[in-house]
Each structure stands twice: as C-alpha cells, then as structure tokens.
C-alpha cells in the first residue's frame, strides 16, 4: 500500500446497481487503505448506511456532501449544467480543495462533461480520453480511448497517441513507448477512412518520452503486447474491445495471473484526477476504482503527465487543479495544432464561444466537451 493520506470523492448514485454496490465497494476500499479518506457525494441516508458499518474510531475518516440528483445512465450529458447532481458536486469538491480525486460508475458522458466544465481541458486537447491498462503476455498495454468520446477524427487519434505515450511513460515507467493504431490489418492502407487518414498522421506526430509510432496493430496485439505498449483507437471501438476481453476471460474461467480487464479507467486531458468505473460495476470494481484514484493522487500521475506533455509537445501555461495544465484548448498548442483547435475543428463552447475559453461556457451555454454520448 502506497503511503500518504488521500481524499476521494465518491459518486454514491453512479452505476447500474447504485447505491448498493457503491456503498459496498467504498467499504472494501476503506478497509484496505488506512490512509484513505472518503467524501461521500449523494443522499444523506445512503451515506449514513456506509458510515454505520464502520467502527466508531474510523468514522471521522468519512465526510458527506448531500446531493439527491443524478445524471441518468442514458441521460443527456448537458443535464450536468442544469442540475445539482452527484458527479457535478464530486468534481466541485476537488476544485474547492475538499477532495483529491473523483470516482464514479455513472454515465460516462455526464462524468466527462462534468470534468471538462469543472477542471478544464489541457492545452491542445479537445476530446479527453479514457485510458485503461490491460495485462498482456509481454507486459502492460495502455489502451485508449475506451469510451471518453465515441466519435473520432484522425487528428483526435493522433492527439490521443500523445496522451497515451505520456501516460505509459509516467504510470508504467515504459522507456520509449511503442505506439500502435488499432486496425483490421497491419499493412498500410488497411482500415476504414479514419484509420487510413490517421496512420500517416501518427507517423508524423511528435510523441513524448522518446515514444515512436510502430504502425497499425490488430486486436491480438493488445493481448500479447509484443508490438505496442500503447494502442490507440476511437472510444466506441475501444469500449467494445475492452468488454469483449472481459467476456473472453469469463469464458476461459477467469483472467490471467497478471490480472483481468480493468473495469475502471483514468480520464486524461483534464486538469484533475478522475476515474470512471464500469457502469455495471460490482463492489470489487468500485473498490479498484477508488484504489486507482488514490494511486493517481499519491503518484501525482496527472500533473506528471501534464508536465511531460508541456516539456515535449505543448507550449503555454501549466497550472491548474491538481497540478495539471489550465483550462482552455486555446491556451497552448500541441504538435502544430492551431490555438483552440484539435487539428481541424474549433474548440470551446457550442455556439461559438471565444477562443481560449476552454471549459468555461457562459451562462446558459454548454461547453463543447467532445462527448457524443
């Protein structure tokens, strides 16, 4: 167990089986980490159920932020702006300094939207990505995007390659990470229109940490890990692949000794630590998500990734919540993108907000978070 007190804001109402599995998962995480502090965001009666299960001596390690509304799993991410809901309140707690990281098994679109609005995006990042680490035969493989944004352009995939390479270097200590683009074959020209456009774009993309692009890879390369340390794809394909691997493990009688497919992912591209759990999370999945969030804070992963990007490909300010870069896709440039653009599309609030506003939508407007689901 890594040392150091850490405060995690937990969305009590996020997930298909919330709040029961969230309460049980939080209890498991709490019992495994004596330095863990929890900020329970949700109905008071649900929080009190968890607190009542603790020893009296441990109850001062738990605080409550009463919130009753939740963003539905199939709801509109824009509802984040219109209501005082659990994920919005959890992000606000980190912004205010009452917590160090956020964990939610709720609607991914709502969580990403809340994070973008609350923390702001890193310079040059229009669409944040969800990053998962899978145990492969030859070592861990970083897979992104696994659901942060369901639609992607070639420029988005190239940007996510930058994020994934930095994450692999910081989180897993990979020297000169090998980056591959997921497709249906390894020969140049394989894949759909987006993949065919993204392949040469990634070949020209400057990557941090001495990373290099190795070309197209296939699904089995994710399982073996012998061709790439980082595999880039769109959020739709990545999410399907991740759940397919889960199903394969179940059919095989369980995951390999190195661990199974993760049911929690790190959100990269915002200036704060956010972990998104599987919507169908069980209590052990929620506990793992909380442990991941604690690890991110203790290792200062998000600020470290941001600093690596700033040193290698991003110019502009590097300050903000949790030590990450400030809001505003217009605040800096990544690998030649124009200020406020993702290599081909304007960033900023829908309806044409000013350049550099980033997550800061004006009254009555919803920021363009890049979320499509």
Automatic annotation (TrEMBL):
<comment type="function">
    <text>Catalyzes the reversible formation of acyl-phosphate (acyl-PO(4)) from acyl-[acyl-carrier-protein] (acyl-ACP). This enzyme utilizes acyl-ACP as fatty acyl donor, but not acyl-CoA.</text>
</comment>
<dbReference type="InterPro" id="IPR003664">
    <property type="entry name" value="FA_synthesis"/>
</dbReference>
<feature type="compositionally biased region" description="Gly residues">
    <location>
        <begin position="319"/>
        <end position="333"/>
    </location>
</feature>
<keyword id="KW-0594">Phospholipid biosynthesis</keyword>
<keyword id="KW-0444">Lipid biosynthesis</keyword>
<comment type="pathway">
    <text>Lipid metabolism; phospholipid metabolism.</text>
</comment>
<keyword id="KW-1208">Phospholipid metabolism</keyword>
<keyword id="KW-0808">Transferase</keyword>
<feature type="region of interest" description="Disordered">
    <location>
        <begin position="316"/>
        <end position="373"/>
    </location>
</feature>
<feature type="compositionally biased region" description="Gly residues">
    <location>
        <begin position="341"/>
        <end position="363"/>
    </location>
</feature>
<protein>
    <recommendedName>
        <fullName>Phosphate acyltransferase</fullName>
        <ecNumber>2.3.1.274</ecNumber>
    </recommendedName>
</protein>
<keyword id="KW-0963">Cytoplasm</keyword>
<comment type="subunit">
    <text>Homodimer. Probably interacts with PlsY.</text>
</comment>
<comment type="similarity">
    <text>Belongs to the PlsX family.</text>
</comment>
<dbReference type="InterPro" id="IPR012281">
    <property type="entry name" value="Phospholipid_synth_PlsX-like"/>
</dbReference>
<dbReference type="Pfam" id="PF02504">
    <property type="entry name" value="FA_synthesis"/>
</dbReference>
<keyword id="KW-0443">Lipid metabolism</keyword>
